[in-house]
Each structure stands twice: as structure tokens, then as C-alpha cells.
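User: Could you check the structure of this?
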Amino acid sequence: FSLRVQASYVIGGYGFSSFGRNVSSDGLNIQTDNQSVNQLDRWQQPGDLALSPIPIWGVSTRSVMNSTRFLYNKTHLRLQNISLSYRMEKELSRKLGMNSLNLTLIGDNLGLWTPYDKSNRNSYKNNISGFPMETLVSLGLNASF
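Assistant: Sure, the predicted C-alpha cells are below.
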């Protein structure tokens, strides 16, 4: 057996997310863009401290302008690739008419963890792009005759 793991990490720094800006609108983009779960933490009563202003459908209060509101802490750990390989015994390979036979199970983009992840909030992980990170699992066979 052989095992390879590739991971990357970022400590500190901030990233601006135009996607995060569009899905955290003041009501202007509600009709055309899905909205962030962060919109549930919105101003409702005078004196409320909230992430988002009160949404007013189709009206811009200019709260979606580029600002530090849409900066996300980029600290994260990403599990990019795991590869587990098994080399068949030579005797078994020869019985199957081959010199060697390797089986490999590969997983790509298996996870991304940020210390700011909360079940009721979108973090940098959700705002890297507008789409979820694709996870790919594949099986490889390498035979030599």
C-alpha cells in the first residue's frame, strides 16, 4: 500500500468577494440572485446590531457598494488530494497474465475548513466563488504486460 496526502493552508489575510456582495444585498438583488443565509441576520428594530440592512425589494440603498463589509478572513485548511494505491502481489498479477497490477483510489477537493464556519453563517468557504467546491473520487487501474 502507499498513501499520499496533499493539503494546503492559509493563515491570515482577507479576500474580497464580489459574489458575497451580490448575495448580501439590501433588497436590490433579491429578484435576480439567491441570497446568503447571512441575510437572516438583518436589521429589524431600531438599535439592532446586524450583518445586513433591512431588505427592501427592488430598492438600492447603496449597501451593495464595494466595502470592507464583503471582506472575508481567508484562514483555512484545504484537503486537496488523497491517493491510496495497492500493488497486487506478483504471483497474483502473473496468474492474471500481467507483469504488475496497481489499483489506485483518488479523492480530490475532499474538504475545506475555516475557523469561522458556523451552521447559520456563510464564511470564506462559501464565498470563494458562487459554486460549491467539486469533490471528485476516481479509481485507477495500472497494468503492465
